[in-house]
Sequence to fold (577 residues):
Amino acid sequence: MTGQRALARHSLAVARRNLVQVKNDPGQLLAATLTPVLFTVVFLYVLGGAISGGQAGYQQYLMPGIMAQTVTVASIATGIGLNLDFGSGVMDRFRSLPIARSAVLTGRILADACRLVLGQLVVLGFALVIGFRVQTGVLPAVGAVLLMSLYGIALCWIAAYVGLRIRSMQTVQTIGFLWLTPLQFASSIFAPASTMPDWLRVFVEVNPTSLVTDTCRGLLIGGPVAGSAAGALLWIAAMIAVFAPLAVREYRRRP
Amino acid sequence: MDTAIETVGLVKQFGDKRALDGVDLKVPAGTVLSLLGPNGAGKTTVVRILATLTRPDGGRATVCGNDVVREADLVRRLIGLTGQYASVDENISGWENLYLVGRLTDLPRRRARARADELLEQFGLTAAAKQLPRSYSGGMRRKLDLAASLVGEPRVLYLDEPTTGLDPRSRNALWAAVRARVATGTTVLLTTQYMEEAEALADSVVVMDNGRVIEAGTTDQLRARVGGKVLHIRPTRAADLAQVLRALAGAGLAGASLDAGAGLVRMPIAGDAELTTAVGALASSALPIAGIDTHVPSLDEVFLSLTGAQPAGSGDAAQVRA
Ligand SMILES: Nc1ncnc2c1ncn2[C@@H]1O[C@H](COP(=O)(O)OP(=O)(O)OP(=O)(O)O)[C@@H](O)[C@H]1O
Ligand SMILES: [Mg+2]
Fold:
């Protein structure tokens, strides 16, 4: 009982530290939010005409996808942050303190969840400014932001595992980009799966990013959500169930 | 007296390098033990095992009766660590660093805030409280590190080469802070390369080389064993050299020798009492004296005398044991 309370307290203390780090170096946050803006410009204004013959309709389709892309990209930061912590002496300090081993990990994920929600709101704000319209209501929109963030948290656990498992920072970054690329681009973020060749569609349709994106699209601009939502939640639960224990184990194993 | 730190036959192997080869230590509660040794002797490894950061491969270690492996969590409640390499977070301010440690050691928010302010004040870092440690000088960072290890008011404090790279003023401030902790009953294990530091702070000294303890005792005992301090007396007139020698002998001090070339008398002194006697003898002789100083053997000299070889660079065991 007291163990759980202490874990929560220590995780919050570490989360605060990670958020203060972000505050002290707003550059990383800026980069994380500029990426989706850049993608919007490229896909909407450069390619939008070619993809769907105009901006207006495509914009409604694209912006929920851009939100999903934001969390996908932002999740790498968890792995990089943990990897950096282990490379510096800070870890010695943490490990010589009477705190639960997992507090450093959960604190990091907690701070990253805050970052993800904030990123979602910024991108949604940007979307509204350039003309995107939520066609459903406040509650479904909140649901969409929550689902995106939940998906982001699941990805953060995977990134945490990678960041702890692999010693070299460069490799962590490379691996992050390697596995996030198909996750982002072989998905329904930029175009519907129905427009793709069969072999690709098989992958795109089971890609969790597609399922999350389709659900959020439904929640923001209307349309069916039940099927994709079930798939998305299943994926999220499975990813956390597998990678959270793996990350904790890796954290314990690091000397 | 209670034992605060005890190790028995501690062994640590890194690949085919035996970093510790059966280290026995015993530190009574409330005392300061200094671990002395050249690079690669195994000092940091001992500290890291005692701080629960590294697992020993053999032997055992306890802190206030708690095993560092099996009861690591209890040990962590008792200890504070200032490692050899700074373990502060470079990306949050000095104050945030201390506040974080305060919260992680279960101080309530208000107490953690007050403790951070208090320690920054004590180490003269108040002006830099809001700055990132990245912008600190090496000495400031070292002090912040020490402050961080004191947040939880540990009963046992480990300091791994705490004053390396500090200017004399910072070094004195750090020594004063350590003494203040000791006055409240804290046990301190201090590693150092400087004999002088061991003498300034430690009740007893353990000399390590190649993962083994090669000598242990009080600083006085150690000094006596390696020839102790040497007193240099330089009379104003070279003609008085013999007079000085006679004055010392008259006070019952033996072993003084005359170095006419250097214009001084050398006398080994086994303890501080002998120094007082020597100064008294010189005063009553009323001879004009231009200079008088004590010479402490350097760590090199201690090693030369204890191992009969030059201090080993890390890794070349054969050279020393040969
Ligand atoms: N993580 C490690 N991996 C491999 N070898 C190690 C590791 N840590 C220490 N060693 C080796 O163990 C030996 C003892 O190292 P240690 O750091 O304890 O020495 P030290 O007395 O603290 O030296 P210094 O005065 O240079 O700090 C050295 O030979 C070192 O190379
Ligand atoms: Mg060392």
User: Anything to note?
Assistant: Residues 309-322 of chain B have pLDDT under 50 and may be disordered. The two ends of chain B are 39 Å apart (CA to CA). The first strand of chain B starts at residue 3 and ends at 14. The pocket of magnesium ion (ligand 2) is lined by residues B 43-44, 84, 160 (CB under 6 Å).
